[in-house]
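Batch job 17 of 40 flagged for manual review because the log was empty.
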Amino acid sequence: MHTPTSATHQFKYQPEKNRRGIMYQYTKSNVDGSAPARVYIRMADEYVIDVWKFESHNFDAAHVQARMNWDFFSTEQLDSWVVTSDGASRPQARMNVSFEEAVVTVQIQHMEGKTEIGHFPFHIYNFDFISLNMSLPHWVNPESELSIGVVQPNFNPEIRSLLNYEGIATLKFIGNEKRNGTPCRKYSLEGQWLNGQAGQLWVSQTEGHIEDMEIPIPDNPDWDDFKFNLVSTQSMDDAQWEQFISTEIKKLTPVDDE
């Protein structure tokens, strides 16, 4: 069994910073704003992150539920579905983490694969770094450096693994700067995974969530690079959230199977 490195000591879990019941609306796009998708995020309770993504093609939606582990400040389980305009939900993938073995197990349809994690906390880039987003309010010294492990689905059909561990990326505090009119801490994001390039993140000084993020490589082959920009936040109880998502699903275009 391999022994991963860890930066989890740089975090302290503070339940009052979870902001349960707050709906975050982001726009995911290329850095130039093209190919926008609407992303809605809400922590259903202390552990579960509920995420819905609606892309511009508008014929289905992606639904993801991730459970956080606040000892490792990483996702311990993730399930994803594809949802159509009639509300039908088709399972897509499941991910489980063994922190003792530092191994992620992924199941996609009839396939299963295991990936070793080399550093904690780790975050899935294809999940738009949402688990990082929800963890940042618990970072004890946000004006310093933080190393994270990066995991990404394998989009190369010539490689047999389902999930790749991409190595360590480092958040480096640059200074204070307003973004979207909000006082933020600005960071660079660097690492071998970025092929010598660097990303940028703007994190709210008061709330700790990501206001904006620009990274020069895509987290999905449908994009050229990556931007994740906060549009709004809104308090919603469970019933309001369910109604809101139901309304968004009904906006999807039905697909003619004939």
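Reviewer: the log was empty due to a logging misconfiguration, but the result itself is present. Residues 19-169+235-250 form one domain. Unflagging and moving on to job 18.
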